[in-house]
Amino acid sequence: MKQPRFWLVVFFLFVVGSWASSLFNLETLAQPVFREGNQMMENWRFRYMERTESENFSLLHPGERREEAAAVLDVAERIYTQLTADYALPQDQLITIVLFPDRTSMQERFGWHYGQSATGVYYGGVIYLLSPDDWSNAAAIPPLSDINAWKQYFYRQGPLAHELAHYYLDQMANGNFPRWYTEGFAQWIEYELIGYEWLEPHNVLHEEPLYDYDQLSRSFDQLHNQALAYRQSFMWYRYLLEEYGEEKMDELHALMRRRWPFSTAWKAVYGQTEAKLLNEWKQKVKSEEIR
């Protein structure tokens, strides 16, 4: 009777979290329940995998990838130490990571179509990683036999800093941020910790028609030029830090932690709407030819 009972608990937590969030718009109250349900579900879904733990992480991985799992955990702990120098994370639980050996298994987990992929995903309290063996540039990655070079490459090019930033925001404010903001913040953390920024010919800001605020806030994931949407969210977030200071951003986060609606908190901190500040920044982008 243990397995049916387990699944009833998981199903109840997952459904209650999702139902309350969608029906009553109580995302910040339902999110901890949803995270708990998703973590329990993933532990069951990937029960065939081996589990390797470090001080702050619990990694589920194929049994034949023990060496890779140990290297991933070393990198995760390195990034965790950097992040928690400025941002507090819960100390009472290990962060669950799932390591997929190939693109297909990751696509199956998320119901993605062929060709849709990512090297990392954060969802419901869990970080999902694609093994570098199946990255599009896998040929450039050092072999695991050169373990230090492999770890340095994974540290610099991998998605852990980005996904751990998403984990932090979710834990801190329980999903109380719009998508554009979470992506701007996560890219800022990447840039600060490992020096990475996403640049390509189609997301040079001053050469492209920039999205307005309604587009960013209401349909971020459906925007045609995703590279531009990500770049715009990152550079606007960076502008806010540089122009108005970290103190303002800390104030915003404090209000979000108290479950203020985002637009209300924004106006209280910055004294004007998101759209007005975005337009202010867009003019600067064009006049100064910001990339």
Describe the structure.
By secondary structure, the chain is α/β, with parallel strands linked by helices. The protein has three domains: 1-45; 46-174, Zincin-like (2-Layer Sandwich); 176-288. The protein contains twelve helices and five strands. The protein has helices at residues 2-24, 27-45, 66-83, 103-110, 147-157, 160-173, 179-194, 213-219, 226-244, 246-257, 262-270, 274-288, and strands at residues 50-53, 57-61, 95-100, 120-123, 126-130. A five-stranded mixed β-sheet has the order 1-2-3-5-4, sandwiched between helices. Strand 1 and strand 2 (57-61) form a beta hairpin. Helix 7 packs across helix 9. The longest helix is centred in the first third of the chain and has 23 residues, at 2-24. It starts with a helix and ends with a helix.
* Share of helical residues: 55-70%
User: Mind telling me the C-alpha Rg?
Assistant: 20 Å
| Number of helical stretches of at least 4 residues | 12
Strand order of the largest sheet: 1-2-3-5-4
How many separate domains make up the residues?
3
Largest sheet: 5 strands, mixed
- Structural class by secondary-structure content: alpha/beta
- Overall pLDDT score: 91
The outline comes out as globular
**Which architecture name of the largest domain does CATH use?**
2-Layer Sandwich
So what's the CATH class of the largest domain?
Answer: Alpha Beta
Query: Based on DSSP secondary structure assignment, what is the total number of beta strands?
Result: 5
Spell out the helices and strands N to C. HHEEHEHEEHHHHHHHH
Question: Would you identify the regions where 5 or more consecutive residues have pLDDT less than 50?
Answer: 20-25
